Structure formats: structure tokens, C-alpha cells
Amino acid sequence: MRNIVLSVLGVLLILGAVYVGNIVANSKKKKRPVPEKVIKTVYTDTVQNKTIPIIIPANGNLVAKRRVELYAEVQGIFKGTGKLFKPGQKYRAGQTLIRIDAAEYYANVQSSKSNLYNSISAIMPDLRLDFPEVYPKWQKYLTSFNLDKTTPKLPEMSSEKEKYFITGRNIVTNYYNVKNLEQRLAKYTIRAPFSGILTEALVTEGSLVRNGQKLGEFIDDAVYEMEVALSKKYASLLKVGEKVALNNLDNTESFSGVVSRVNGSIDASTQTITAYIEVKDATLKEGMYLEANLNAKEEENAIEINRNLVSDTNEIFVVRDSILDVIEVTPVYFSDTKAVLKNIPDGTIILSKSVPGAYAGMLVKPYTTQKTQAKITKTKNAE
């Protein structure tokens, strides 16, 4: 009997130990956590189509609109004019830039003018006897003749006899020889064709100037032009008179210009068209590098977004019921950072910033500020 009791107790003890062990073992097992759904917060914008100005960026260097390269047509010693012939020297319109010694040539001109005067004086008695009706006008011509001034124009010949008589005495030939010499004498003095500044000087006072030698460069420092090359697809958009905003590379100065000319042909090698922008400002200098923004046209019923939001297949992400989707768009213009798009309905919610790893069907949560949330709540209450 005792052995039976001990056996039963032993079995019960073993069963109890197994039960307790199972409880302890089960209590140490960790439950696998259920993963939470990750919802990305995205920045969005609501489409509102409007008129978008298409601005074409361009750049180039300023060049003076009016420029003169100074060349000598005669030979002689360069004489002083009261102003140093140096780069940076300013001159008014009509002021003497260069004076070349013309003493010897001037003497030849005066000699020819004197011969013309003597020739006319020699025929005056014959005119008084044979052509009394034309004598007064020739007498008046002699009276107005001044060797120190430009030779006046010969009187108008009213009859064939008068013309034959005057021509037969070589008066007309001598007159035109004198005018030819006077024209060449004027080339010994070079005057400023307009007010401006000397940018290059290749001779100095006292140096010998030779025929055909370049003397310097003179520009109008009040008006400049910038030549820009644009793609041929903008040829129909560029208009003469269109205003242009310009700025320097540091964006510290801004200027206003206007499209003055557009080339009528396209460069065959680069397939670009050249436009010229005229700009006036006292602070500008020739050779300055500027950036320009040309207002090519205005596109109606369009939006402008960051270029990186448009895929290679011309699609963008939209948000529909907190889920990303894609729609096709029609690009009108691409700049370096922006894209102008059409065919997007008003009220469409699009991404305003790119989302890494975004895909159609992705669950998202639009980011709303307190101001936006208050506006949404106000709209719902009104409804």
C-alpha cells in the first residue's frame, strides 16, 4: 500500500513539474510586433490655371552701338589738339580728335585757289563786253571769293554761249581741281562724329602718321547693345521693341533694355537666331557681361512648377484621396529650373516638392499648416 501511494505521488509530482515548466517556457516567448503602416507627409499645391509669361534667359557682352575705327587717309606729323590722345579721353560731337600737319598741302591748295581766282578775273572784261547780262553774277562771285574760306560754288550758267565761254577758259576744270584738293585737305583733321570716348589710341603727338595707318577707336558710351543667340524655336516669339530685364553676374545691379533688332536669318551651324538688346545706363561699360530675361510670350491657361516634378514621359504626381497617382501633361516650355504645363484641370492637387521613391498607389498625407487647416475647416463649416 505504501509503495502505491509513493508511486502516485511521484507521478503527480512529475506531471506538476511538466506543467510548471510549460508555463515558465511559454511566459518567455516574445510576440512578433505587428508593423505599423508608414504614411509619408508630402507638400502639395492646388492647381489654379492662369496666364504664365514665358521668359527666355540669355547672356552676352556689351558692345557700343556706335563705334568708329580711326584710320589715316593722308600722311604727316601728328599735332596736338589741346587734349591728350589717350584711351578714356572724352570728346564732344564735332570736336577735333586728330590733327595732322598739313602746312605743305595747304600751300598747294591756296595756290590752286589763287589760280582759279585769277582765271575768273581774266575773263571779266570779255564778259562785260560780250555777255553784259551775266556779268553781275560773276562779279558778285569774285567779290564773295575768299582765299581763307571754302571755295564757293560757281554761278549757274543760264545759256549755251555762256557755258561754252566759261568751259573754254578751263574755269570749270580749275574749280573742280580746287574742290578735290579741299576735300583732301579736310582729311588732315579728324573730328568726332558723335559725343563719346576714345577706347584705343595707337599714335602719340609728334609721331609720323602714314596713309592707311590705324590710329585708334572711338565709341559712343551712352548706348550699348548685347548680342544674344537663341534657339530657332523662339524666332516667331521675339519682337522688336520688347522690354528686357538685365542684371550682372552678382545680381547686384539691374538694368532695363529693349530688343532693337532681330536677325532675319538662322545660323546654319548652330540653328540659333541672333537678337540685339539695346541698353542705356551711365554705369555700363563696353565688354560687361550681363544676363537677360526676354519676355517671349504669355501662355494662357497654364501653370508653372519645378522642372524636377515632371517625369521623362511628361507625367506628374497628383494626390487623390491620400493616394498618389500620375497624370499626363502637355509641356509648353522648359527653363533650367521651371516647367510651364497645360491640360491640368483647376483644383487638381499636385506635389509641390519631389518625394524620393514615390510611386502610383503610395499612401501619403498632405502637409497642411495651421493657416491652411483653418481655411479647410472654414470651408467645411460653410458647406
UniProtKB/TrEMBL annotation:
The protein's organism comes out as Kordia algicida OT-1
Which PANTHER family does this chain map to? MULTIDRUG RESISTANCE PROTEIN MDTA
- According to the entry, every stretch annotated as the Multidrug resistance protein MdtA-like barrel-sandwich hybrid domain falls at 66-215
> Which Pfam families does its entry note?
BSH_RND
What Gene3D superfamilies does the record tag this protein with? 2.40.30.170, 2.40.50.100, Helix hairpin bin (1.10.287.470)
Q: What is this protein called?
A: Putative bifunctional UDP-N-acetylmuramoyl-tripeptide:D-alanyl-D-alanine ligase/alanine racemase
GO molecular-function terms, A-Z: efflux transmembrane transporter activity; ligase activity
- SUPFAM superfamilies (UniProt xref): HlyD-like secretion proteins
